[in-house]
Design goal:
Strand content of chain B: 35-45%
Largest sheet of chain B: 6 strands, antiparallel
Radius of gyration of chain A: 24 Å
Distance between the termini of chain A: 58 Å
Order of helices and strands of chain B: HEEEHHHEEEHEHHEEEHEHEEEEHEEE
Largest interface: A-B, 61 and 56 residues
Strand content of chain A: 35-45%
Number of domains of chain B: 2
Number of domains of chain A: 2
Largest sheet of chain A: 7 strands, mixed
Shape of chain B: globular
Oligomer: heterodimer
Shape of chain A: globular
Number of helices of chain A: 9
Number of strands of chain B: 18
Chain lengths: ~450, ~425
């Protein structure tokens, strides 16, 4: 049976909302180590995901066998019926209807011969010449995601996107110590975008970082003024503020920002938003996985919490407008509210001015990830590297630091925002409810007047 | 789908290894105590390795109709691949193991209404003053078919049943979960989460100190997965990326420690009749009474050391490709109360977080601790807000003496609680 006919059939049985995703994914993974290819994979899949809403309840079914699609509709409908007797009643009626076909233009990286990619990666390895480098890794994945989305309100959206994700890593051994430095690059785009990457510069920067790692001192522990760089700032806002703005956590009452809409949570000069529309950044998309057109959503305006991020379900449950943040890792999983690219708007301070007046402080750079307890807003972050700040100047290199605190306490302590906003292109992926989705962001440097720094990582 | 057809087609290009996995999954999710999503899914994956001499190519598809082009993709990758040190291994015909208690018909065939009742049970014993932001029950059935050009044809099937629950009082949360091959009592899981939250109420601050830390199952499991398992995997040993390289038959840990990787453990979460490349699984003694006895091998890494595979391949996509099955720590003699009474001043740490920050080679651990309780003179005094713990795992295991006697396995590690001495507790 045709897709649309199947939707009609189950609508006539009483379903008030149905959507269907047909997702085709193809990817190629190549990884090289010390002058050799160490693994290659070719992956492809076709997935069907059907979601049915009946009397206030969802049923969801998936398969990768088209001959079982009608069965999946029946299963989803049956599950929705079983759930409907037991649940909160809400309606799905605010559904933006879109008809669109968005195709990525230009040459695909998947059509570049794999031999060329291998040669490129082996050549990148040759750029590393420091004698204490013991291990070199260069690898990448190239993937295409093509999704056809239908729903019973009439949306019909096709979107294809390509991603490339590169990981370059070197490990050095000196005086019995092992240190590693690595760079991750991830973007939405094809060959035209990939070939803009400047591997000479990336390799040089990595060698410099590795050299610094070996002379890095042990960071002090205690309360210090803290300056954090673009990458760490964006990751910090993603983890500590962005997740708390995802409306499902508001509904679950597991967000520290629940009930705080309209309240001042940050300084006047702080503005934060979510936007899928940064071209080529990892969290880019034209339409979300519910066929809703992507748009910028302001989360914090002049320090005031202004919006949450929604899927169709949370928007309808909370009687708010959908924001185009209903995303799923694949058609085998349901759409939930997710960030796209998290952007902190730039401030007025020049780079040097951020350090002015700091007698002793820490300059933390680049993220090794963080943990946030959503209900309390307690967080712990780790930087990949750090420097000591003494009398307003960046001085000695330090090992990465961890810093912790509570988000509602730390936001008011941000007293300077730099004017150097930069898009990450770091190929970030974010995990939630067992689903990984590509995300990104942009941010300037910021200064926090005082934070708890935990010493060596 | 007819695997022999794929083998025949692939053999035009080289030796073929195939793995076909089919999975069925049912899942119910609850938000604030009410059902929020019900799902059913079926999926298949076909993995293909084509090999010739020292070269191989690997491709995977979830679109089974597409098997021919998947074979050709594997062939394409084989052609551009570099030569390995040895010929690509192909599993030989052997007798497959029979593993007890990894498949339960009743866990495969749970009706949606029955699953709903397990979900309701999960939440039924939670203190009524607490909210339940999230809860989930699911069951899973998986079957694997393995075939290669040596005439090997193997099959296995297993079930799993999982439940998880988060409990909150609006300020603090607690989380509990369990996975087993058979259906388990979900009431207990919810009850445990609720009791944990009650224990956590009214946390106090302490100042940093050096003392004894009782790490519970989940923490021990994370630590072993991050440091010990990589250190005893032959690929890391051969590349000198292991702290235990060159230490075979030497005393590396305290007498109290014996570790067996048991791929045939009845009911073991990661038991299976054969490993990822079709070798029979086995019991491998990694550490006996503190002496390092054996490493984990797949066929390729075993060839390098002139030994036999221990049945620890985790798949055909890479070479070598090694992983644990059930990493079983030998039972100690201490009950929980006896363990507490061993501690003059210390903390109990139920879970750790930030395990990706552990130095997996040196064993230096500086991680966050979750669900932490202050212990003085053998008594649990009060919960602690936030803490970090810092120590070296290899050093700690050289001295470990107090090991618990009740198992919990949620990952590869069949874990027991242990006390580590002289751990830096930062709060």
């Amino acid at each position: 049976m045709e897709y649309k006919a199947l939707i009609k059939k189950f609508e006539s049985k009483g379903a008030s909302f149905i959507d269907l995703r047909i997702l085709d994914q193809t990817s190629e993974v190549v990884s090289t180590e010390n002058g050799n290819v160490n693994s290659m994979q070719d992956l492809s899949s076709r997935q069907f995901g059907v979601r049915i809403f009946y009397k206030g309840a969802w049923g969801f079914a998936y398969t990768n066998d088209v001959s079982k699609l009608e069965d999946s509709f029946s299963k989803a409908f049956k599950l929705a019926k079983i759930s409907s007797a037991k649940k909160d009643v809400f309606k799905i009626n605010n559904v933006p209807i879109n008809k669109a076909s968005v195709k990525q233009k230009g040459k695909s990286m998947l059509s570049v011969p794999i031999e060329d990619k291998i040669n490129l990666f082996l050549n990148i390895q040759k750029k590393f010449n420091l004698d204490f480098i013991k291990n070199k890794n260069v690898g990448a994945s190239f993937s295409r995601r093509e999704q056809q989305y239908f729903n019973s309100f009439g949306s019909n959206v096709f979107e294809s996107r390509e991603y490339f994700n590169v990981l370059i890593s070197i490990t050095g051994l000196k005086n019995g110590k092992v240190k590693r430095s690595f760079e991750r690059i991830g973007e939405v785009g094809g060959h035209g975008q990939f070939r803009k990457l400047k591997f000479d510069g990336i390799a040089k920067a990595l060698e410099d970082k590795l050299k610094t790692e070996f002379i890095a001192g042990i960071p002090p522990a205690g309360k210090f003024p803290l300056v954090i760089d673009n990458v760490l700032t964006h990751v910090f806002f993603h983890e500590a503020v962005g997740h708390a703005c995802e409306a499902d956590s508001i509904i679950e009452k597991s967000s520290v920002l629940a009930g705080k809409l309209g309240e001042k949570i940050a300084p006047d000069f702080l503005n934060l938003y979510d936007t899928p529309k940064i071209k080529n950044e990892h969290g880019y998309y034209a339409y979300d996985d519910e066929g809703v057109k992507s748009k910028r959503t302001i989360l914090i305006k002049n320090g005031i919490l202004t919006n949450y991020l929604h899927s169709l379900e949370t928007a309808n449950k909370l009687n708010m407008k959908p924001t185009g943040n209903g995303r799923a890792e694949s058609a085998f999983q349901v759409q939930i509210p997710r960030m796209s690219n998290t952007v902190l708007e730039k401030g007025d301070f020049k780079f040097d001015e951020l350090f002015e007046g700091i007698k002793k402080g820490i300059y933390a750079k680049d993220s090794l990830g963080g943990v946030v307890e959503p209900t309390t807003g307690n967080f712990l972050f780790n930087s990949r590297s750090a420097f000591l700040i003494e009398n307003g100047k960046v001085t000695k290199p330090l090992q990465g630091v961890s810093f912790g605190g509570n988000i509602l306490n730390i936001l008011p302590k941000i007293d300077k925002i730099g004017d150097d906003k930069k898009v990450s292109y770091g190929g970030w992926r974010c995990g939630k409810n067992g689903q990984m989705v590509p995300v990104g962001g942009a941010a300037p440097h910021i200064k926090i007047s005082e934070a708890m720094v935990g010493g060596a990582k | 789908m007819e695997l022999s057809k794929v083998i025949k087609f692939g053999e035009k290009y080289g030796d073929v290894t195939l793995i076909l996995s089919n999975e069925k999954n049912n899942k119910l999710e609850f938000t604030n105590g009410k059902i929020s999503n019900a799902s059913h899914g079926e999926s298949s994956v076909l993995e293909i390795r084509i090999s010739k001499g020292k070269k191989f190519g690997y491709a995977l598809t979830r679109n089974l109709k597409d098997w021919k082009s998947t074979v050709l993709n594997a062939v394409k990758l084989m052609r551009v691949s570099r030569d390995l040190d040895f010929n690509v291994p192909l599993a030989e015909k052997t007798k497959a193991n029979r593993i007890k208690n990894i498949f339960y018909k009743r866990a495969k065939e749970i009706s949606p209404t029955k699953l709903l009742s397990y979900g309701e049970n999960l939440m039924s014993e939670v203190d009524s003053s607490f909210n339940i932001p999230k809860a989930e029950v699911s069951n899973n059935y998986g079957e694997i078919k393995f075939m290669n050009s040596n005439g090997v044809f193997l099959k296995s099937k297993e079930t799993s049943f999982s439940s998880s629950i988060e409990v909150s009082n609006g300020k603090l949360n607690s989380y509990e979960f369990h996975t087993s091959h058979d259906i388990h009592n979900t009431k207990n899981i919810g009850k445990k989460a609720s009791e944990l939250l009650k224990m956590k109420l009214h946390p106090k601050k302490i100042s940093s100190f050096k003392g004894d830390v009782l790490f519970d199952h989940l923490a021990v499991s994370d630590l072993f997965e991050s440091v010990i398992i990589p250190a005893v995997s032959a690929d890391n040993v051969q590349l000198k990326k292991s702290n235990l390289a060159n230490k075979l038959n030497k005393k590396v840990f305290s007498d109290a420690l014996t570790i067996i990787d048991d791929g045939v453990l009845p009911n073991g979460l990661f038991s299976s009749p054969f490993d990822g490349e079709g070798s029979p699984t086995s019991k491998t003694t990694i550490v006996r009474d503190g002496f390092l006895r054996e490493f984990l091998y797949d066929i390729y890494s075993a060839k390098k050391d002139g030994v036999k595979s221990t049945g620890n391949s985790v798949g055909i996509d890479k070479l070598p490709n090694i992983g644990p099955s059930n990493f079983v720590i030998k039972r100690g003699t201490f009950s929980r109360d006896e363990m507490y009474s061993e501690i003059k001043r210390g903390v109990y740490v139920r879970e750790i977080f930030g395990s990706h920050l552990i130095n997996t080679i040196t064993g230096d651990c500086s991680v966050g601790a979750e669900n932490v309780f202050y212990i003085k003179n053998g008594k649990v005094i009060h919960p602690i807000n936030q803490a970090m713990v810092s120590f070296n795992l290899f050093d700690a295991l050289k001295k470990v003496r107090v090991i618990g006697k009740d198992y919990r396995q949620e990952s590869h590690v069949a874990a027991l609680p242990m006390i580590f001495k002289n751990v830096q507790v930062i709060s």
